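User: I'm writing a tutorial on reading structure tokens. Could you give me a worked example: one chain, its sequence, then its tokens, then a sentence or two explaining what the tokens reveal?
Assistant: Sure. Here is the example chain.
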Amino acid sequence: MDTIILSDWLAARLERGAAEPMYRQVLRLVQHAILTGQLAPGTKLPSSRTLADDLEIARNTVLRVYDQLTAEGYVLSTTGSGTYVADTRPDAAAVRPRSSPRASEPGMSREALAQQSLSTRGRRLIGRAGVAPKQWGAFMPGVPDVTEFPSRTWSRLQARLWKSANPELLTYAPGGGYRPLRRALSDYLRVARSVKCTPDQIILTTGIHQSMDLAVRLLTDVGDRAWVEEPCYWGARSVLQSTGLEIDPIPVDSEGLNPREREFGPAAPPRLAVVTPSHQYPLGMVMSLARRRTLLEYARQHGVWILEDDYDSEFRYGSRPIASLQGLDEAGRVIYVGSLGKILYPGLRIGYMVAPEHLVDTFRTGVAELYREGQLMHQAVLAEFIMDGYLTSHVRRMRALYGERRQILIDAVTSRFGNALPVMGDEAGLHFVLGLPEGADDRAMTSAAFEAGVIVRPLSAYYSQESAAQSGLLLGYACVPHERIAPAFDALARVIEKEIASAAARVV
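And here are its predicted structure tokens:
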């Protein structure tokens, strides 16, 4: 393409009166012509005056385009000589044909291209992802009722802090986070969860996932083994696998994590054990004192780190909250992690970890180095919220509200199915598990329920080993208004009855 044709080519493609400014149009079109080879390397561009006259636009517009092309390396300008297209073609060595398992073929589907692009661990992570397309509604497990959050109180506290606009609250968060919040949390955890800690031991994070990720990166190496409960929270499994750990699923029974003789035997002990002792997720049992003491002693003798995920133990119905495993630890082997998301609202994204005293400085450095934490203003508001007593009163109020909704849903189950479908793990938390008959496909049931406007999670998806998986549905009740529970369960019940009938027909 020579200089005369360039003017004609541009004139034919410019959209006079379009929303896109003329400068942007000319720049985009010339860049396209260079990148596609329609303007070959070494081609001399028209002078700014000539091109402006040909296109009937202001010369300053063309000058601005040429300046931007020069700045981005598309053209080279020499005083007295003119403006020439630069040679931006890839180096021949970089594009030499060679076989590559990741080379894409023309016409590949979007899904196939995505799969081919991923690493092995990327495919494993995405293939087993548990994140749901919707995060609100009947019967989404693990989601609090955010409409009940005391937003006016929070807004008032926040406005007071913004009024002073302390510059220290608008920068990064060194030292593990806002100290007044760490002090407030340590007081709260000692009373509410029997956690033994000082403010210095608390490291503020964005939630359970980041707390786990930090602990795993600092305390384990790629290829180390990690015990996880079977079944377990999918997010914990994803974090561990994405950091290169080998997952060793340990079954749970009515007393919680149940390592058998072979796990305690001559094989090398794991580097890490991840447990939910106060309310096992997803099945809901509490780890017995005997199991707790056994796990702690095993960890002390073999140098095993224990990650205690205490995700929603504030909400118990009919009994007091169970004390933490960390409170029994005398050897400094437990890293306690928690979050305010289930108590207040998930979008808050403030979590915490309680580090053993000898690891405090290490964890502070790690969280600052890897994540460059901030959110000091939110942390300051939360500190005021806790110290003024609002957190305690909010938990007390929500425990009563969730207890009512839990009972309404249990009554709906019993009214429709009697004792045919067992309710499991309903003593605490924001969900329970509805057991299904053997052979019922809980994944198909979940999909059908979603089509009917109801969100549930399949219990089988929480198992690492398909051969061990039980069939069931996780039903969350916390974010469902009282009056919506019965009609939503009626819709779900029709799906359940249809799938159970189909399963029975397949057996016959």
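What the tokens reveal: The chain has a mean pLDDT of 90. Residues 3-85 form a domain with the Arc Repressor Mutant, subunit A fold (CATH 1.10.10.10).
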